[in-house]
Amino acid sequence: MSKVLVRGLIIVWALAVSEVCVAQSVALPDFTELVERSAPAVVNIRTTARISQSHMQQFPDLDENDPGWEFFRRFFPQPGPQPNPHQGPAPRTPRPDREMPRGQGSGFLISADGYVMTNHHVVEGADEITVTLPDKREFKGRVVGSDQRSDVALVKIEGSGLPTSKIGDPARLKVGEWVIAIGSPFGLQNTVTAGIVSAKGRETGELLPFIQTDAAVNPGNSGGPLINMRGEVVGVNSQIFTTSGAYAGISFAIPIDEAIRISDQLRTQGKIVRGRIGVLIGEVSRDVAEAIGLQRAAGALVSSVESDGPADKAGVEPGDVFLKFDGKPVESQSDLRRMVAGTKPGSKISATVWRNGASRDLQITVAEMQADQARLGRADPGHPNPAATDALGLVTSDVPADQQKELKIKGGVLVEGADGPAALAGIRVGDLILAINNVEVSGAKQFGELVSKLDLKKPAALLVRTGEQSRFVIVHPTEH
């Protein structure tokens, strides 16, 4: 191979490597300008709690050799000369309360006149709040309002012309998009971490859906902003998934549109008003959906209806599946819970439920959320008049008329005995069976006839009530 050809190949290789390096440098984001624009509005929040020294009287006098002596000496120092513990306790005198550090977190300014967004758990139980800006200015903060359910709090500091955060639209976020988190993890103020959006609408059992990211978030980051590449706040860092207490690669942020909606209510009303309709709900499994005739496993399954509550007055029954609420599709129980909570009390809305193989529309007047006080009821497992054991492994009897009236049911059967497939499915003595495969049960005789006509090669969907709770139970007759 000639030297000219070799030199030519080297040049081509060098150019190719150069192009790859340039492509990589272009692909990797530069966060410097983004941080410069966003960081000035991110604050550190320190809180203190007032500790009464009188609570120390509940502890016995400690010997200086006691392992707890050093702890109390360091964290509860006493002014003046200390008595020798070997000479007996000195007379106790009242001492003033002490301000003890409680914790710290992060927040961000959403208005130039000093409104700060943060988490409820950052300021909960605080007697004094200190807000520190990146330029080292410190302000005393007061809680305007705080909501435990959403973990959103609004703090006010006295100032004007303060730097503010630009608010974005979480709906525009895409999974895989770069985001940064700014806050004070472990007290290290103005710490910047970066990652991508790992998932949207993540359900964690809370009232709000979360934005999941892999941006490092640790204790102290709580309440800080999650920021997109346009410099807009799209979330409030709130939770982490961890087994050790520190970051484990997964963090969650409250969507900023939800947080702003809550903070607006806190600013104007000092509290959050939520709607309720008086139902307990669960998910619709694939087996249940197939058995009751739904095309897919979606909606919210009603397990219990509060007596004389809004849903009860509208005609909602245990075993119904909410498909739509106020014209919006209900994909899961979390969807319905959020829709109801976000509806103004007193509003009359239309809901679509699935019952006995068909959909029906109901009008529900939403009430204000309060503690449920539904009375529990249960059939008497010792009631006589048992029917014969059936193909499902059940022994059933009629439910007395007075008990039907008390429980607000029509018909149904009482489970006197459960064996085989029924027992394997979780049905127990004392349960009530209200329907089978979308057919309402009127009594033991009719239930027996329905069971005798079942295709024993297919699972049966039984609407079972235990106390105030109703659920669909899938029973496989072939397991008998």
Structural class assignment: alpha+beta
Low-confidence stretches: 55-88, 371-388
Residue share in β-strands: 25-35%
Q: Quick one: overall form?
A: elongated
The helix fraction, in percent, is 10-25%
Total helix count? Answer: 11
- Mean pLDDT value: 81
Number of strands: 27
Write structural notes for this entry.
The protein has helices at 3-27, 32-38, 67-75, 120-123, 256-269, 286-292, 310-314, 333-341, 401-407, 420-424, 444-452; strands at residues 42-51, 98-109, 115-118, 128-132, 138-147, 152-156, 166-167, 178-183, 191-202, 210-213, 225-228, 232-240, 251-255, 275-276, 279-283, 300-305, 321-325, 328-329, 348-355, 358-365, 367-368, 394-398, 413-418, 432-436, 439-440, 460-466, 469-475. The protein has 480 residues and is an alpha+beta fold. The strands form 5 sheets. A 6-stranded antiparallel β-barrel has the order 1-2-3-6-5-4. A 6-stranded antiparallel barrel has the order 8-9-10-13-12-11. Strand 2 (98-109) and strand 3 form a beta hairpin. The protein is elongated. Residues 55-88 and 371-388 have low confidence and may be disordered.
